[in-house]
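Methods, example record. To illustrate the input and output format used throughout this study, we show the complete record for DUF4440 domain-containing protein. The sequence lines were provided to the predictor; the line carrying structure tokens was produced by it.
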Amino acid sequence: MRFPLLPRSPQHRTGAALCLAMLAAAPPAIAAPAPQTKAQVQAEIWAKEQAIYAARGAGNLDAYIANVATDYAAWPPYATAPTGVAELRAANATMKGQELLEMTFTALALNGDTAVIYYQTHRTRMPDGTAVDQRYDVIHVWVREGGAWKVLGGMARPRKG
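The corresponding predicted structure is encoded as:
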């Protein structure tokens, strides 16, 4: 009995063997990154958040700008509408390096390549050096883009009490 998909002549068998040998020798496809546990995602994103705020305290938003996703928009508590990366770049040009903030992690929600981090901040010094006592609830939505976690959006509001 002959199977129609098997080579019939010696030349066909040699060609089939050559194709199989080429496939076996081909470099492996680029593997997707290993899935992360929720704890790993939380640690990675929280470290990025802390680095962003540490840079803010030094008068630099470059760490924030470097971590924004395509089509980023966020709603700061002082703005009447969401702002984008252009506003971050403009603010970066005027930062003076005096801001002082403390951060407290609250929660992280994770679904596939999307995470929402919740935390609170306490600002005791404005970028211009003015002493204040401001407390905020903050969320950032992070997405995995090009294999890296990036901020897609966020919102902050003054904390009551």
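Annotations derived from this record:
Strands lie at 68-75, 100-111, 114-125, 131-145, 148-158.
The helical segments are 10-25, 38-57, 62-66, 85-94.
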